[in-house]
Specification:
alpha+beta; 33 helices
């Protein structure tokens, strides 16, 4: 081997750099471990522990925690350089936000009332539920259909308005207006992206990730380590629409509530009398609108059964709070107050009143000792246009400060226009109330004692925390979102579940590595020990690269690395088997080693096999999201490093030992004659294999059409929660318990241990996205499961995020809306088809015969169908989760890569034998090639299976289904490379020859 010195230097330097990079992770874990010990010694409450950890880490943030003599590093320095862990290992939130293009279009049209425009919006919204096209494209199509040439986009009532007059005039055609609107929408999405990035930068999460997803108006946000999930959601979805309103007092609304109560009571009484009459029931549904399931199950008798009005008995009791309700009853109150008959009771002066809730609920104890979450209601003096007298664009600065009572508040400074308007409003309302409203929530509604002409005001509240005040100030300073952004897909993982995943992954990692190291020494002796050294260097390089480039390590990523361990051994196995063949021919040791590492020896097969797997990794990376991308990235890095270490590091060690002139056999006394002189006529057995595979595929297809597959929320939409209980709990019983809460029984399965359940529901998943629905589902889940917990457990403790001692409740959750579920399914389909197409073309390029490509792709189709068939047949029987989601697609594509890897090595030997043994029949060439590579095939497959079984048995619950798919795939892939790929290639070649 040439340039040994250069390779040695590179390996040593790269190894040192990798160790240097990884050292920061070691030191960071040490500091954070001390912070955790300190926090847990002070408290057992999860939220308090998190606060104490942050206080400790803030205290050492800029102090030297490492002194290397030539350089000092603070905690912030080493934190920036550590290995990034994904949500499934560290906890946190991963979300995809959809910026509402519909709201942007409404804004650009100045809230047009044009019926064609609004019909096109409604139709586009409906069409998007089952389409992967952008909302803007759908809107243009629907507008063209609705207008039929009668009205243009440039019409003054649509986009030809004053705000766009410099870009659009009524003479422009629709085709000319479309790119202008597209630019405006893109600009608004870019603004939203920058606003969100500014908010996240101020949030204080280390190593956040925010990126746009194409031109879809979607923004991916990853916040590993974030614990206050509710706070994060508010931060991301707040449009920061600040408004200042005059407010009605409870004295002004008292009579209205008494009258409204009577009207609602009569309406509900009518419903009870007519509930057996279908038509009457339908009319009432139209009248009352959509109300919650609890209302349907047990109708309220009147308005006051869900709302406690504030009726002042003296001047001291006059307040801006006009009523109080349970948080769970707010939807009912809203539906009652929106009734035409109730709105008609408002006087002419009050007819534009809008009812808004307080920004933050509070907990109260009932007479029976039960804790309930209550919230205040306010009456806002709105107008026909619903435009506030003062809006947030007048705010110049905002900051978190402490008020006169020492409570946190948000101090705001207005510009000249705002100061004048604020002075006028406060002057006119001395002795009355004004409200500060942010995103349709009332943050404060104080009484005005004196006029305020200084242009300064504040948002304050008795229960406002420092973090909440900081967040409000941050969103106001970052600016208003140009349109509402809502979470259409999210994954939330609690820290304890992440730590459990790390522990189980490390255990399986260590066991798998140990088994591989021992097997290589057992089978190849000293050569196996040298391969083990190369494997250790390979792992060092992989983690060094991941750390240096700031990659995020996820649970599937660890699986990818462990799989790389099994597959990287393959390169050494191919080389060693070729060296053994040369030694058996009587060649000298050095000549055999040289041939084994040459392109004519093992290198050609290694390169072809790894390129096909690399192509699969690239397809995964392009089409995958989240954990699938992490898996693909580590797989690709592992392929590159394993090739380098197998070809160069192993060669250096073997050459060094061979130069000593000692005995070197590449086997042990036990394995010396294993797989030697094998001569099996595989092609004679191909018809049996065809019948066996055909029968299995037919059974599988029948099962797929009848039994189906267990699609996860990734593909069908829904919400999934992993819930921890104090003790073992029956999945069937919990499903029945939650049936009343959700209207239909959710899917409930045991997840890992008996005290942990996975609960999946589609409750309201198709309704227009709203954070209120997310909160409602969590509240319904909590109330439904209350009886399984101690009475002391609160809703806040039940939610994911903070982990205290003996954490129970929601450990992780996933939400996927149907629209993005369809997109994920489409991307998965393209990923599989793309990998097959690229593989077909590459094999055609390398082997020059389409029959080789056909054989390889047919074997891959065979493997995929059988894995799907087994999942369809067994998902109701096996005790672990076998959902079909993004991770399953990653497994399928890995199976594709593995099967191709095996097949390409065999095809490479067939090509070699075809050129050498020209006198042999083609059938003999194929059989001899299959027989000569059988040792390598079995060796690699067994090694990989041992690794996968270790992960499957000792790894985390969340990847058992993923590992099972890989195990089935490796077994089936090994079988198909021997009995499907080569025979199909042979049959097509022979058929073509017979025609000639």
């Amino acid at each position: 081997m040439q340039n040994k010195g250069l390779i040695k230097l590179f390996a040593i330097l790269f190894g040192l750099v990798s160790l240097y990079q990884l050292s920061f992770t070691w030191f960071t874990n040490g500091v954070e471990g001390k912070a955790k010990i300190y926090a847990e010694s002070k408290s057992e409450d999860g939220k308090e522990i998190a606060n104490l950890e942050r206080v400790y880490l803030d205290s050492v943030a800029n102090k030297p925690v490492i002194d290397l003599g030539f350089a000092q590093f603070s905690y912030n320095d080493i934190k920036d350089k550590e290995l990034n862990l994904g949500l499934d290992l560290k906890g946190g939130i991963n979300a995809i936000l959809q910026v509402s293009v519909k709201d942007i279009l409404i804004g650009l049209s100045n809230e047009s009332k044009n019926p064609v425009f609004n019909k096109a919006l409604a139709n586009a919204t409906e069409a998007q539920r089952s389409s992967d096209r952008t909302y803007l494209d759908l809107f243009f199509d629907e507008f063209e259909k609705a207008s039929a040439g009668t009205v243009k986009l440039s019409d003054p009532s649509i986009f030809g308005n004053k705000s766009l007059r410099e870009k659009i005039n009524f003479k422009l055609t629709d085709a000319e207006v479309m790119p202008i609107i597209e630019d405006e929408v893109t600009g608004s999405v870019n603004t939203a992206f920058e606003v969100l990035r500014s908010r996240i930068d101020k949030f204080g999460v280390t190593q956040p990730n925010i990126q746009r997803i194409g031109n879809s108006g979607r923004i991916l946000i990853e916040l590993p380590g974030a614990k206050d999930i509710d706070r994060v959601k508010k931060l991301l979805q707040s449009t920061a629409e600040l408004q200042f309103w005059e407010v009605y007092s409870n004295r002004e609304t008292a009579n209205f509530f008494f009258e409204a109560n009577t009207v609602v009571e009569n309406l509900l009484k009518t419903k009870t009398e007519d509930e057996d009459t279908t038509s009457a029931k339908d009319d009432l549904d139209d009248l009352l609108g959509e109300v919650s399931d609890s209302l349907a199950a047990k109708p309220a008798e009147n308005l006051f059964s869900v709302l406690s009005p504030s009726i002042p008995q003296s001047e001291n009791q006059v307040s801006s709070v006009i009523g109080t309700a349970k948080v769970l009853d707010t939807a009912k109150v809203n539906s009652y107050l929106a009734l035409r008959e109730v709105r008609a009771l408002l006087s002419n002066e009050m007819k534009y009143t809008k009812f808004l809730w307080d920004a933050k609920p509070f907990t109260s104890t009932t007479a029976t000792g039960e804790s309930v979450d209550l919230i205040y209601l306010y009456g806002i003096k709105s107008n026909r246009q619903d435009i506030a007298p003062i809006e947030g664009d007048v705010i110049e600065d905002a900051s978190q400060e402490y008020g006169q009572t020492g409570q946190p508040e948000v101090s705001m400074t207005m510009n000249a226009i705002g100061s004048r308007l604020w002075g006028k409003m406060t002057t006119e309302n001395v002795g009355k109330f004004v409200a500060v409203v942010l995103d349709d929530y009332v943050y404060t509604a104080p009484s005005v004692n004196v006029a305020i002409t200084s242009g300064r005001t504040s948002i304050s509240g008795g229960s406002m925390t420092v973090e909440e005040a900081q967040d409000i100030a941050n969103v106001l300073k970052a600016g208003k979102l140009p349109a509402a952004a809502h979470i259409i897909q999210s994954e939330i993982v609690g820290p304890s579940l992440g730590q459990k995943a790390i522990d189980s992954s490390m255990s399986s990692f260590a066991l798998a590595l140990l088994l591989v190291l021992l097997w290589m020494i057992f089978y190849y002796g000293k050569a196996g020990a040298f391969a083990d050294v190369a494997l250790a260097v390979n792992l060092l390089f992989i983690f060094g690269i991941l750390t240096a480039f700031g990659a995020v390590l996820t649970l599937p990523g660890i699986a990818g690395i462990i799989l790389t361990i099994g597959m990287s051994v393959d390169a050494n196995v191919i080389i060693f088997e070729r060296i053994k063949e040369e030694l058996d021919k009587g060649k000298g040791l050095k000549a055999s080693i040289s041939h084994g590492f040459s392109f004519k020896g093992a290198l050609s097969a290694i390169i072809d096999a790894n390129i096909t797997t690399m192509l699969t990794g690239v397809i995964l990376y392009v089409f995958g999201t989240g954990p699938v991308k992490g898996f693909a990235y580590t797989l690709m890095v592992g392929i590159v490093t394993s090739m380098f270490t197998a070809i160069f590091i192993t060669r250096l060690l073997i050459d060094w030992y061979a130069a000593k002139g000692k005995l070197f056999t590449f086997n042990t006394s036990i394995t010396k004659n294993w797989f030697n002189r094998i001569d099996i006529e595989f092609l004679r057995k191909r018809k049996i294999a065809y019948i066996f595979s055909g029968a299995l595929i037919v059974v599988g297809l029948i099962s797929l059409f009848t039994n189906g597959l267990n699609y996860g929320v990734d593909f069908v939409g829904g919400r999934t929660y992993v819930v921890k209980f104090d003790q073992a709990t029956s999945a069937t019983e919990v499903s029945e318990t939650l049936k009343d809460a959700f209207g239909s029984a959710p899917e409930v399965k045991t997840y890992g241990e008996a005290s942990q359940l996975k609960i999946t529901t589609k409750y309201k998943i198709e309704e227009e996205a709203s954070s209120h629905i997310d909160d409602e589902v969590q509240s319904l889940l909590f109330n439904g499961l209350k009886k399984y917990y101690s009475k002391d457990l609160t809703l806040e403790q039940f939610k994911p995020g903070y982990d205290g001692v003996g954490k129970v409740g929601i450990m992780s959750s996933i939400k996927v809306e149907p629209t993005i579920a369809d997109d994920i399914k489409t991307a998965a389909g393209w990923a599989i088809l793309g990998s097959l197409l690229i593989t077909f073309l590459y094999i055609l390029f390398r082997f020059r015969k389409w029959q080789f490509s056909l054989g390889a792709v047919a074997a891959v189709f065979h493997d995929v169908l059988i894995v799907l068939a087994i999942f369809s047949l067994l998902y109701k029987i096996l005790p672990f989760d076998m959902e079909i989601g993004q991770s399953f697609i990653a497994a399928i594509l890995t199976v594709v890569g593995y099967s191709l890897n095996d097949t390409v090595v065999i095809f490479d030997r067939i090509r070699e034998f075809t050129g050498i043994h020209t006198s042999w029949k083609f059938s003999e060439v194929v059989d001899k090639a299959l027989s000569s590579t059988l040792g390598r095939t079995i060796n690699t497959s067994l090694t990989t299976l041992v690794v996968l079984l270790a992960i499957f048995l000792f790894g985390g619950d969340s990847i058992k289904g993923f590992m099972f798919a890989l195990i089935v795939g490796v077994v089936v892939g090994t079988y198909s490379s021997l009995f499907i790929a080569s025979p199909i290639m042979y049959d097509t070649v022979k058929k073509l020859d017979s025609k000639k």
